[in-house]
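Minutes, project check-in
Item: structure for the 373-residue chain
Input as provided by the requester:
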Amino acid sequence: MNKLIRFFVLTAIFAIALTSCDDEERSLVSIAVTTPPAKTVYTVGEAFDPAGMVVTATFSNGDAEQITIVAAMLSYDFSTAGAKTVTIAFTYEGTTVSTTVNVTVNAPEVTLQSIAVTAQPTKKEYTVGEAFDPAGMVVTATFSDNSTAAVAHGDLVLTYDFSTAGENKSVTISFTYKEVTRTVSVTGITVNAPAPVKIVTVGEQVGTLTAGTPGTVTFPVTTTNFADGTYAATVANLSETVRMLGGNLEIAISNNAGTLTLETNRFATASIFATLTLTIDGVTTEAFTLTISEGDNGLEHGGFDGTITAQQVVNADNSLTGAVRAQLDDVVIATGNFSNRGFTLTIPQPVSNEFLISIEGVFHCHDNRIKLS
């Protein structure tokens, strides 16, 4: 029995001795990254994150153990962009070994910091309803890397309300860069009420004009938003024989009303001028109509005897002389002379067709179509 006890005691002592000998002989051989970290891409200035990384130490006796990573074991420089190395150092019983892991460090993303109006827009006065005009305006953006750039007008969002008149109106300017939006305002804008719209209308002809007889007719003129006064006026599409009374190209307006007077001379022929327009102070009316009715042009005829006598056909100073002829279908059927403010033509036979009487020797040829009954 005593021998058996001594055997177990000796066996235990021997085992303890062997274990003690093994601990004294184990030394650190190396460490290695056996699982890379989860994050391997960084931005300049960031700290290394060892999460997910597994580092295994190998000992001289063949043991392999996972070691705990603490900040003191890491060395790296992420102050510049590029391919970088993180060094991991581990010390065991005075022996230090290291390993590395490779990562990428990118330059920091440039972000928008602010915008400013560095040149004011050229136009700062508007009328109600006008659109803002950014011409001349410069908006400068400042970024996180301290760089600056002028922003194209097309990249700006402009918010404003010019629907009412007022002073010191503002326009809010927004610019978005990489989902970051900054705003600035342009102030001191004046929006004026719109100028009143001016309108001119011409009423229907008052009076009658007869071809070959000097005379005048009037047209009522109505205006809107015109101050009382005399305005320059023109009438478009008049013939040479019709003009504004006395050649006076003006119309007096009082309480937004006036009168247009047209006159004809003895050379006016029967016609309807349906496209006349009146223009006052740059405002033009819609078309209106002047009617000149037919007349006998101062000519009489003696019925079936075919005698035609002129009455006061030309100027009163008796200066006009010249040949007179009656023409039917391009055939001269009678001739005579004009003198003493008149003439007489004898038609060779009664004529039922229209024929032409021409008085020559005057700047304006005086033509009259006559039909005998």
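Outcome recorded: The radius of gyration is 56 Å.
No further action items on this chain.
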